[in-house]
Amino acid sequence: MTTQNTPVSLTGENIHLSFGTNKVLRGVDIHVDAGKTTTVIGPSGSGKSTLLRALNRLHEPEQGDILIDGKSVLKDNPDKLRQRIGMVFQHFNLFPHKTVADNVALGPRKLQGLSKDAARALAVEQLEAVGLGAKADSRPGNLSGGQQQRVAIARALAMKPEIMFFDEATSALDPELVKGVLSLMADLASGGMSMIVVTHEMGFARSVSDTVVFMDHGQVVETGPPSALFENAETDRLRQFLAQVL
Ligand code: ADP
Ligand code: MG
């Protein structure tokens, strides 16, 4: 088994970010403990994706701080920061003309300087870990959407991230394929990965998260353990949101 990096804690403090005059993040605080899962829920357009992009500095926050294990990373090289964070998006963006194993091996080869053989061995191992060892030499187009998303997760894990971000990883999948991806994410969480998960899957948020963050209009409206948010919502905004999605 290859060694995984030690999971880290991550904190976003008072994150502000605008696109032109549109203030998309208006002082967001978010935290995930090392080895725990924080889930972000909220209506479309509330700033969830932008928050993930601010936390890995794809969009630089205008104000606020980002800390890993309590230490600010704002002065670090952003590319170095992004190598510490595994990202999984709604659209998996695998290279269609490369094999599944080559897709997974690409990052370790190009960014971590692994030899072709070592990167291949790592890719096959990560594919086995997500239940797709037998698909190593297939093209992505011959896999189901759920399998492709598991490849995308293997691709992120091959980089030995210290924390994983998921942005609506199951939203583009046919309903019967959602479960396999969610159960892989739940396995990662119970295996001690640090994760920030943006999702509309309330069952996952409720059963897997340690902390839930409810966002609306670029602000955190409520945050706490799942039982508090799902059973004892304090605000009308959260109650209305839950009434719509549950
Ligand atoms: P969510 O993920 O919660 O649906 P987003 O973070 O995608 O919300 O979007 C929040 C707001 O930011 C929306 O008003 C959206 O139009 C705006 N926005 C997001 N990304 C960009 C961008 N790259 N340029 C301009 N506006 C953007
Ligand atoms: Mg989004």
Automatic annotation (TrEMBL):
Record keywords: Amino-acid transport, ATP-binding, Cell membrane, Membrane, Nucleotide-binding, Transport
InterPro entries noted in UniProt: AAA+_ATPase, ABC_ATPase_HisP-typ, ABC_transporter-like_ATP-bd, ABC_transporter-like_CS, MetN_ABC_transporter-like, P-loop_NTPase
Protein name, entry field: Amino acid ABC transporter ATP-binding protein
Compartments (UniProt record): Cell membrane
Pfam families: ABC_tran
One Gene Ontology MF term: ABC-type amino acid transporter activity
Membrane topology: Peripheral membrane protein
Source taxon at top rank: Bacteria
Family the entry assigns: Belongs to the ABC transporter superfamily.
SUPFAM superfamilies: P-loop containing nucleoside triphosphate hydrolases
CDD domains per UniProt: ABC_HisP_GlnQ
Domain ABC transporter: 10-242
Native source species: Antrihabitans stalactiti
